[in-house]
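## retry 2 of 3
previous attempt timed out at serialization; input unchanged, resubmitting
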Amino acid sequence: MKRSRRAGRRVPKDASVLKPDLEGLFMAARAVGLRKIKREEHTSHPSRPHGREGRLWISASGAKESIGAGSKEELLQLVGGQWREMQRNQRQAAEQETARGPKTGDRRARSQRKNTQQRSSFKKRKSFKKR
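## retry succeeded, writing output
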């Protein structure tokens, strides 16, 4: 969900994440170096009671000793930047996987791949009526 600062976004746009979820937030916090983390799934924010997003508790003393984050804003920016980087890497890996095409032994995926430019004998039908 896209939000403005006035609507409740707490980090700059370069540290914000599209479609955030609790599992991704937890993985990004671990990747930054946080260790004292507690997850509460299916809890809602008071201003959004219908959305059961979940909550992540991070120990302030644990954050200070593990990564040296002095404030909550600094912690949010570190985790958000790491999460955005993780999403970017996943997106690039998925693009490379699709560009590579199906594996050699995957007959089902290879049969779905129809490239008409490589096969000159292939004639494309204009309509699918009975003849």
